[in-house]
Design brief:
Blueprint lengths: L19 H26 L6 H10 L3 H18 L10 H11 L2 H14 L4 E8 L2 E8 L11 E7 L6 H4 L3 H11 L3 H11 L17
Antiparallel strand pairs: 1-2, 1-3
Helix pairs in contact: 1-3, 2-3, 4-5, 5-7
Length: 214
């Protein structure tokens, strides 16, 4: 059985960019429901897999849309909490150099990241990732993510679903993305992910299920 991991910081730690009210609704209610649905679907179909990454990949391969959306949302949200920090760390020299090479600097990256998120129609996620040819920005719909893309390692992600920002920003997705990018990316985590993409360490993995019978 997969369980909702605790937040890596207090519910109010990301204020004023993201309110405590939003975090309690988003993590404690929305995120928890995705784990409940994922576990129920796995039990109904008799699927036992050792990791949430495996669940997402099998659901994608077998075109199990309902399982993909719920397991993907469970994985995406845990990654989302992890790639934020109230401490405002800076990118490592290696990641900063890659950002400069791929985008022309952090300010230019912000512009492209926000533009991608604003242009994305409907629910989903906007990602900064590392690939063989450099850094890239992608957006995915609903619960989809980048796990199935060979050689691509996500560095940061921002949630584009309305429940991520409507309490604090109403319908101003651009304002949310801009404020989020300025204050919350955990660049220390992103830097470790970048090194993993270059073969130095392992990329982040979701916490394992609490038992062998998911």
């Amino acid at each position: 059985m997969f369980q909702l991991p605790p937040l890596p910081y207090a519910h109010n730690a990301l204020e004023p960019t993201v309110s405590e009210e939003t975090m309690r609704l988003h993590h404690d209610k929305h995120h928890a429901k995705y784990f409940e649905a994922t576990n129920k679907l796995l039990q109904q179909e008799g699927i036992v897999l050792p990791s949430l990454e495996d669940v997402v990949l099998v659901a994608k391969r077998d075109n199990k849309t309902k399982l993909l959306n719920n397991a993907g949302q469970a994985w995406n949200h845990t990654f989302f909490w992890t790639c934020m920090s109230p401490d405002r760390p800076q990118p490592s020299p290696e990641l900063a150099s890659a950002i400069e090479q791929s985008f022309g600097g952090l300010a230019a990256l912000k512009g492209k990241f926000v533009d991608e998120g604003v242009a994305h129609f409907g629910s989903g996620w906007v990602w900064l990732s590392a690939a063989a040819d450099g850094l890239r920005i992608d957006s995915t719909h609903d619960g989809d993510n980048l796990l199935h893309k060979r050689g691509v390692v996500p560095l940061i992600v921002c949630d584009l679903w309305e429940h991520a920002y409507y309490v604090d920003y109403r319908n101003d997705r651009a304002g949310f993305l801009s404020a989020w990018f300025d204050a919350l990316p955990n660049w220390a985590f992103a830097s470790a992910q970048f090194l993993a993409a270059r073969g130095q360490g392992q990329p982040w993995k979701h916490p394992a299920p609490v038992s062998a019978t998911a």
